[in-house]
Write a structure and sequence with these properties.
α2 packs across α6. The chain is globular. It has 369 residues and is of the alpha+beta class. The two termini are 38 Å apart. The C terminus is likely disordered. The strands form four sheets. The chain has a four-stranded antiparallel β-sheet, with no helix packed on it. Helices cover 43% and strands 11% of the residues. It folds into three domains: 81 residues, no CATH class; 126 residues; 145 residues, no CATH class. The longest helix has 24 residues.
Length: 369
Protein backbone atom coordinates (compact mmCIF):
# COMPACT_ATOMS: atom_id res chain seq x y z
CA UNK A 1 0.00 0.00 0.00
CA UNK A 2 1.06 3.60 -0.41
CA UNK A 3 2.72 5.14 2.65
CA UNK A 4 0.60 7.28 4.95
CA UNK A 5 1.75 10.43 6.73
CA UNK A 6 0.88 11.78 10.15
CA UNK A 7 -1.81 14.43 9.55
CA UNK A 8 -0.30 16.64 12.25
CA UNK A 9 3.46 16.61 11.54
CA UNK A 10 3.67 14.79 8.16
CA UNK A 11 6.04 12.06 9.40
CA UNK A 12 5.66 8.83 7.45
CA UNK A 13 3.86 6.12 9.37
CA UNK A 14 3.60 2.38 9.29
CA UNK A 15 0.04 1.18 8.74
CA UNK A 16 -0.12 -0.21 12.27
CA UNK A 17 0.59 3.19 13.92
CA UNK A 18 -1.64 4.33 16.76
CA UNK A 19 0.56 7.13 18.09
CA UNK A 20 2.85 9.28 15.95
CA UNK A 21 6.47 8.58 16.96
CA UNK A 22 7.35 12.19 16.22
CA UNK A 23 4.59 14.47 17.54
CA UNK A 24 2.98 11.89 19.89
CA UNK A 25 -0.57 12.65 18.73
CA UNK A 26 -3.09 9.79 18.85
CA UNK A 27 -3.79 8.44 15.37
CA UNK A 28 -6.50 6.43 13.69
CA UNK A 29 -6.95 5.17 10.13
CA UNK A 30 -10.14 6.19 8.36
CA UNK A 31 -10.90 3.70 5.55
CA UNK A 32 -13.59 5.99 4.10
CA UNK A 33 -11.02 8.67 3.22
CA UNK A 34 -7.97 6.37 3.11
CA UNK A 35 -5.91 8.48 5.47
CA UNK A 36 -4.78 8.75 9.06
CA UNK A 37 -6.55 11.26 11.29
CA UNK A 38 -5.25 12.70 14.54
CA UNK A 39 -7.12 13.34 17.74
CA UNK A 40 -7.07 17.03 18.58
CA UNK A 41 -9.26 19.55 20.45
CA UNK A 42 -8.66 18.07 23.87
CA UNK A 43 -8.96 14.55 22.51
CA UNK A 44 -12.54 14.92 21.27
CA UNK A 45 -12.34 15.55 17.51
CA UNK A 46 -10.59 13.60 14.77
CA UNK A 47 -8.98 15.89 12.17
CA UNK A 48 -7.10 15.48 8.89
CA UNK A 49 -4.00 17.33 7.68
CA UNK A 50 -6.12 20.32 6.58
CA UNK A 51 -7.69 20.59 10.02
CA UNK A 52 -11.08 19.39 8.82
CA UNK A 53 -13.09 17.48 11.43
CA UNK A 54 -14.31 13.98 10.60
CA UNK A 55 -17.38 12.48 12.34
CA UNK A 56 -15.73 9.21 13.39
CA UNK A 57 -14.96 7.26 16.54
CA UNK A 58 -12.52 4.46 17.31
CA UNK A 59 -13.41 0.85 16.52
CA UNK A 60 -15.09 -1.01 19.37
CA UNK A 61 -12.23 -3.50 19.46
CA UNK A 62 -9.90 -0.64 20.29
CA UNK A 63 -12.16 0.57 23.08
CA UNK A 64 -12.50 -2.86 24.63
CA UNK A 65 -9.26 -4.66 23.75
CA UNK A 66 -6.84 -2.12 22.29
CA UNK A 67 -6.19 -4.19 19.15
CA UNK A 68 -7.45 -1.96 16.31
CA UNK A 69 -6.44 1.45 14.91
CA UNK A 70 -9.30 1.88 12.42
CA UNK A 71 -12.11 4.40 12.76
CA UNK A 72 -15.88 4.03 12.38
CA UNK A 73 -18.46 6.64 11.28
CA UNK A 74 -20.40 8.17 14.16
CA UNK A 75 -23.68 7.80 12.28
CA UNK A 76 -25.18 4.34 12.11
CA UNK A 77 -25.38 1.39 14.44
CA UNK A 78 -22.01 -0.16 13.58
CA UNK A 79 -19.44 -0.06 16.37
CA UNK A 80 -16.81 -2.28 14.75
CA UNK A 81 -14.69 -1.20 11.78
CA UNK A 82 -14.90 -2.65 8.27
CA UNK A 83 -12.33 -5.30 9.19
CA UNK A 84 -13.30 -6.22 12.76
CA UNK A 85 -17.00 -6.62 11.99
CA UNK A 86 -16.17 -9.91 10.21
CA UNK A 87 -14.89 -11.54 13.42
CA UNK A 88 -17.13 -14.37 14.59
CA UNK A 89 -14.87 -15.63 17.36
CA UNK A 90 -12.03 -13.88 19.16
CA UNK A 91 -9.52 -15.94 21.15
CA UNK A 92 -9.56 -16.68 24.85
CA UNK A 93 -7.65 -13.68 26.22
CA UNK A 94 -6.90 -15.22 29.61
CA UNK A 95 -3.66 -16.85 28.45
CA UNK A 96 -0.74 -14.39 28.77
CA UNK A 97 0.52 -14.87 25.19
CA UNK A 98 -2.86 -14.38 23.52
CA UNK A 99 -3.44 -10.57 23.53
CA UNK A 100 -0.17 -9.81 21.74
CA UNK A 101 -0.65 -12.57 19.19
CA UNK A 102 -4.23 -11.56 18.51
CA UNK A 103 -3.03 -8.00 17.95
CA UNK A 104 -0.54 -9.20 15.36
CA UNK A 105 -3.23 -11.24 13.63
CA UNK A 106 -5.61 -8.28 13.50
CA UNK A 107 -2.85 -6.07 12.08
CA UNK A 108 -2.29 -8.54 9.24
CA UNK A 109 -6.02 -8.81 8.62
CA UNK A 110 -6.35 -5.02 8.30
CA UNK A 111 -3.68 -5.05 5.60
CA UNK A 112 -5.70 -7.69 3.76
CA UNK A 113 -8.86 -5.62 4.01
CA UNK A 114 -7.06 -2.49 2.82
CA UNK A 115 -6.25 -4.32 -0.42
CA UNK A 116 -9.75 -5.80 -0.81
CA UNK A 117 -11.31 -2.37 -0.29
CA UNK A 118 -8.99 -0.72 -2.80
CA UNK A 119 -9.78 -3.42 -5.35
CA UNK A 120 -13.48 -2.74 -4.62
CA UNK A 121 -14.25 -6.41 -4.10
CA UNK A 122 -17.51 -7.54 -2.54
CA UNK A 123 -16.94 -8.06 1.19
CA UNK A 124 -20.06 -9.12 3.07
CA UNK A 125 -20.57 -10.43 6.55
CA UNK A 126 -22.66 -13.61 6.82
CA UNK A 127 -25.66 -11.52 7.91
CA UNK A 128 -25.28 -9.18 4.92
CA UNK A 129 -24.86 -12.08 2.50
CA UNK A 130 -28.01 -13.75 3.84
CA UNK A 131 -29.96 -10.50 3.52
CA UNK A 132 -28.76 -9.86 -0.06
CA UNK A 133 -28.94 -13.49 -1.16
CA UNK A 134 -25.36 -13.45 -2.42
CA UNK A 135 -24.28 -16.75 -0.92
CA UNK A 136 -21.83 -17.11 1.94
CA UNK A 137 -20.42 -14.13 3.79
CA UNK A 138 -16.91 -13.80 5.16
CA UNK A 139 -16.19 -14.45 8.84
CA UNK A 140 -13.20 -15.30 11.04
CA UNK A 141 -12.60 -17.56 14.02
CA UNK A 142 -9.34 -16.82 15.86
CA UNK A 143 -8.67 -19.70 18.24
CA UNK A 144 -6.10 -20.35 20.94
CA UNK A 145 -4.53 -23.82 20.86
CA UNK A 146 -3.16 -24.63 24.35
CA UNK A 147 -1.95 -28.09 23.26
CA UNK A 148 0.16 -26.58 20.49
CA UNK A 149 1.47 -24.07 23.00
CA UNK A 150 2.53 -26.75 25.46
CA UNK A 151 3.63 -29.60 23.19
CA UNK A 152 4.13 -28.11 19.74
CA UNK A 153 1.49 -30.44 18.30
CA UNK A 154 -1.11 -28.39 16.46
CA UNK A 155 -4.73 -29.29 17.28
CA UNK A 156 -6.56 -26.50 15.44
CA UNK A 157 -6.18 -26.40 11.68
CA UNK A 158 -5.95 -23.08 9.91
CA UNK A 159 -8.32 -23.19 6.95
CA UNK A 160 -11.55 -22.13 5.26
CA UNK A 161 -14.99 -23.65 4.97
CA UNK A 162 -18.14 -22.01 3.60
CA UNK A 163 -16.92 -18.46 4.15
CA UNK A 164 -15.50 -19.09 7.61
CA UNK A 165 -11.74 -18.65 7.98
CA UNK A 166 -10.23 -20.34 11.04
CA UNK A 167 -6.78 -19.22 12.16
CA UNK A 168 -4.77 -20.88 14.90
CA UNK A 169 -3.12 -18.25 17.09
CA UNK A 170 0.07 -20.32 17.11
CA UNK A 171 0.70 -18.88 13.64
CA UNK A 172 1.46 -15.56 15.34
CA UNK A 173 4.37 -17.17 17.18
CA UNK A 174 7.44 -16.56 15.01
CA UNK A 175 9.37 -19.59 16.25
CA UNK A 176 6.49 -22.03 15.78
CA UNK A 177 5.54 -20.60 12.38
CA UNK A 178 9.13 -20.85 11.16
CA UNK A 179 9.32 -24.43 12.36
CA UNK A 180 6.18 -25.32 10.41
CA UNK A 181 7.45 -23.46 7.36
CA UNK A 182 10.67 -25.47 7.41
CA UNK A 183 9.00 -28.82 8.10
CA UNK A 184 6.53 -28.30 5.25
CA UNK A 185 9.20 -27.08 2.84
CA UNK A 186 7.52 -23.73 2.26
CA UNK A 187 9.60 -20.80 0.98
CA UNK A 188 7.04 -18.34 2.37
CA UNK A 189 4.71 -18.47 5.38
CA UNK A 190 3.33 -15.34 7.04
CA UNK A 191 0.15 -14.21 8.77
CA UNK A 192 -0.72 -11.95 5.86
CA UNK A 193 -0.05 -14.80 3.46
CA UNK A 194 -2.46 -17.02 5.39
CA UNK A 195 -5.20 -14.40 5.18
CA UNK A 196 -4.73 -13.86 1.46
CA UNK A 197 -4.75 -17.61 0.80
CA UNK A 198 -7.83 -18.40 2.90
CA UNK A 199 -9.77 -15.44 1.51
CA UNK A 200 -8.89 -16.78 -1.94
CA UNK A 201 -10.95 -19.86 -1.03
CA UNK A 202 -13.79 -17.57 -0.03
CA UNK A 203 -13.80 -15.80 -3.39
CA UNK A 204 -13.70 -19.15 -5.19
CA UNK A 205 -16.95 -20.04 -3.46
CA UNK A 206 -18.32 -16.53 -3.93
CA UNK A 207 -17.52 -16.12 -7.62
CA UNK A 208 -17.03 -19.58 -9.15
CA UNK A 209 -18.74 -22.39 -7.24
CA UNK A 210 -22.23 -23.22 -8.56
CA UNK A 211 -21.84 -20.80 -11.49
CA UNK A 212 -21.03 -21.32 -15.19
CA UNK A 213 -17.61 -19.82 -14.41
CA UNK A 214 -16.52 -23.16 -13.01
CA UNK A 215 -15.88 -24.52 -16.51
CA UNK A 216 -13.39 -21.75 -17.31
CA UNK A 217 -11.77 -22.39 -13.93
CA UNK A 218 -11.34 -26.10 -14.67
CA UNK A 219 -9.61 -25.41 -17.98
CA UNK A 220 -6.77 -23.65 -16.14
CA UNK A 221 -6.69 -25.16 -12.66
CA UNK A 222 -8.11 -28.64 -13.15
CA UNK A 223 -11.24 -30.44 -11.97
CA UNK A 224 -11.94 -29.61 -8.33
CA UNK A 225 -14.31 -32.57 -8.03
CA UNK A 226 -11.39 -34.94 -7.46
CA UNK A 227 -11.14 -36.19 -3.87
CA UNK A 228 -9.55 -33.56 -1.66
CA UNK A 229 -8.68 -36.11 1.04
CA UNK A 230 -6.88 -38.35 -1.44
CA UNK A 231 -5.07 -35.37 -2.94
CA UNK A 232 -3.92 -34.31 0.51
CA UNK A 233 -2.69 -37.83 1.34
CA UNK A 234 -0.67 -37.91 -1.87
CA UNK A 235 0.78 -34.47 -1.21
CA UNK A 236 1.86 -35.15 2.36
CA UNK A 237 2.40 -38.88 1.89
CA UNK A 238 4.46 -40.18 -0.99
CA UNK A 239 5.25 -36.71 -2.31
CA UNK A 240 4.10 -37.59 -5.82
CA UNK A 241 2.77 -34.07 -6.39
CA UNK A 242 6.08 -32.33 -6.98
CA UNK A 243 6.42 -28.64 -7.63
CA UNK A 244 6.61 -27.61 -11.29
CA UNK A 245 6.70 -24.42 -13.29
CA UNK A 246 2.94 -24.69 -13.79
CA UNK A 247 2.28 -23.86 -10.13
CA UNK A 248 3.20 -20.88 -8.01
CA UNK A 249 4.10 -23.09 -5.04
CA UNK A 250 4.42 -26.72 -4.06
CA UNK A 251 1.21 -26.47 -2.01
CA UNK A 252 -0.63 -25.31 -5.13
CA UNK A 253 0.02 -28.72 -6.73
CA UNK A 254 -2.11 -30.53 -4.17
CA UNK A 255 -5.59 -29.72 -5.49
CA UNK A 256 -7.23 -27.19 -7.87
CA UNK A 257 -8.76 -25.40 -4.87
CA UNK A 258 -5.32 -24.86 -3.37
CA UNK A 259 -3.89 -23.83 -6.73
CA UNK A 260 -6.54 -21.12 -7.01
CA UNK A 261 -6.04 -19.91 -3.41
CA UNK A 262 -2.25 -19.84 -3.73
CA UNK A 263 -2.45 -17.95 -7.04
CA UNK A 264 -5.02 -15.54 -5.59
CA UNK A 265 -2.71 -14.81 -2.66
CA UNK A 266 0.19 -14.31 -5.05
CA UNK A 267 -1.78 -11.74 -7.00
CA UNK A 268 -2.47 -9.89 -3.74
CA UNK A 269 1.26 -9.97 -2.91
CA UNK A 270 2.21 -8.43 -6.25
CA UNK A 271 -0.52 -5.79 -6.31
CA UNK A 272 0.06 -4.55 -2.78
CA UNK A 273 3.86 -4.52 -3.07
CA UNK A 274 3.69 -2.58 -6.34
CA UNK A 275 1.27 -0.14 -4.67
CA UNK A 276 3.86 0.39 -1.94
CA UNK A 277 6.60 1.00 -4.50
CA UNK A 278 4.28 3.40 -6.32
CA UNK A 279 3.60 5.29 -3.09
CA UNK A 280 7.31 5.90 -2.63
CA UNK A 281 7.74 6.93 -6.28
CA UNK A 282 10.41 4.27 -6.82
CA UNK A 283 12.08 3.83 -10.20
CA UNK A 284 14.96 1.65 -11.37
CA UNK A 285 17.93 2.27 -13.57
CA UNK A 286 17.44 0.99 -17.10
CA UNK A 287 19.79 -1.95 -17.49
CA UNK A 288 20.97 -3.41 -20.80
CA UNK A 289 18.32 -5.65 -22.31
CA UNK A 290 15.44 -3.94 -20.50
CA UNK A 291 12.61 -2.41 -22.47
CA UNK A 292 12.15 0.97 -20.86
CA UNK A 293 12.88 2.09 -17.31
CA UNK A 294 11.13 -0.02 -14.65
CA UNK A 295 8.75 2.14 -12.64
CA UNK A 296 5.37 1.95 -10.98
CA UNK A 297 3.79 5.09 -12.43
CA UNK A 298 0.31 3.54 -12.53
CA UNK A 299 -2.36 2.39 -10.09
CA UNK A 300 -1.64 -1.30 -9.36
CA UNK A 301 -5.17 -1.78 -8.04
CA UNK A 302 -6.55 -0.93 -11.51
CA UNK A 303 -3.76 -2.09 -13.85
CA UNK A 304 -3.89 -4.98 -16.29
CA UNK A 305 -2.08 -8.20 -15.45
CA UNK A 306 0.47 -7.71 -18.22
CA UNK A 307 1.55 -4.37 -16.74
CA UNK A 308 1.75 -5.80 -13.22
CA UNK A 309 3.94 -8.69 -14.32
CA UNK A 310 6.18 -6.58 -16.58
CA UNK A 311 7.06 -4.13 -13.82
CA UNK A 312 7.12 -6.72 -11.04
CA UNK A 313 10.00 -8.76 -12.47
CA UNK A 314 12.78 -6.13 -12.20
CA UNK A 315 11.62 -4.93 -8.78
CA UNK A 316 11.39 -8.49 -7.43
CA UNK A 317 14.98 -9.08 -8.53
CA UNK A 318 16.05 -5.84 -6.82
CA UNK A 319 14.24 -6.80 -3.61
CA UNK A 320 16.06 -10.13 -3.55
CA UNK A 321 19.39 -8.39 -4.13
CA UNK A 322 18.73 -6.05 -1.20
CA UNK A 323 17.83 -8.97 1.07
CA UNK A 324 20.98 -10.83 0.06
CA UNK A 325 23.00 -7.70 0.84
CA UNK A 326 21.62 -7.95 4.38
CA UNK A 327 22.47 -11.64 4.62
CA UNK A 328 18.80 -12.64 4.37
CA UNK A 329 17.15 -15.18 2.04
CA UNK A 330 15.34 -13.95 -1.03
CA UNK A 331 12.28 -11.86 -0.26
CA UNK A 332 10.59 -13.24 -3.38
CA UNK A 333 11.64 -16.89 -3.88
CA UNK A 334 9.29 -17.50 -6.81
CA UNK A 335 9.34 -17.54 -10.60
CA UNK A 336 6.43 -16.63 -12.86
CA UNK A 337 6.06 -18.96 -15.84
CA UNK A 338 3.63 -18.33 -18.70
CA UNK A 339 1.22 -20.87 -17.19
CA UNK A 340 1.28 -19.13 -13.82
CA UNK A 341 0.81 -15.73 -15.47
CA UNK A 342 -2.24 -17.09 -17.29
CA UNK A 343 -3.70 -18.21 -13.95
CA UNK A 344 -2.94 -14.81 -12.39
CA UNK A 345 -4.63 -13.10 -15.32
CA UNK A 346 -7.71 -15.29 -15.02
CA UNK A 347 -8.12 -14.45 -11.34
CA UNK A 348 -7.37 -10.79 -11.95
CA UNK A 349 -10.06 -10.52 -14.64
CA UNK A 350 -12.50 -12.44 -12.44
CA UNK A 351 -11.95 -9.98 -9.58
CA UNK A 352 -12.31 -6.99 -11.88
CA UNK A 353 -15.68 -8.25 -13.01
CA UNK A 354 -16.69 -8.79 -9.39
CA UNK A 355 -15.57 -5.26 -8.53
CA UNK A 356 -17.80 -3.87 -11.29
CA UNK A 357 -20.67 -6.03 -10.15
CA UNK A 358 -20.57 -8.01 -13.39
CA UNK A 359 -21.80 -11.58 -13.59
CA UNK A 360 -20.70 -14.46 -15.75
CA UNK A 361 -23.90 -14.16 -17.76
CA UNK A 362 -23.17 -10.48 -18.47
CA UNK A 363 -19.71 -11.45 -19.65
CA UNK A 364 -21.10 -14.01 -22.09
CA UNK A 365 -23.64 -11.48 -23.41
CA UNK A 366 -20.85 -8.98 -23.97
CA UNK A 367 -18.87 -11.60 -25.94
CA UNK A 368 -21.87 -12.39 -28.10
CA UNK A 369 -22.42 -8.70 -28.84
Amino acid sequence: MAPHACPNCARLLHFEARVCPSCAFTLGYDPASDQFLFLGDNATTWRDAQGEAHPVVVCGNNNEYGVCNWLVPVEGERTLCLACRHNRTIPDLSAPVVPERWGRIEAAKRRLFHTLLHMELPIETPAEAAEKGTGVGLAFDFLYDPVAEETGTVQITTGHEAGLVTLNLIEADDVMRERMRTELGEPYRTLLGHFRHEVGHYYWERLIQHTPEVEAFRQLFGDERISYDEAMQRHYGDGSCGWSTDFVSAYATMHPWEDFAETFAHLMHIVDTLATLNGFGMRMTKWPGMQGQPSVDFDPYRAETSQLVAEWGPFAFAENAINRAMGQPDLYPFNLSETIIAKLDYIHRLLKRAAKGGSVEEKEEAKAA
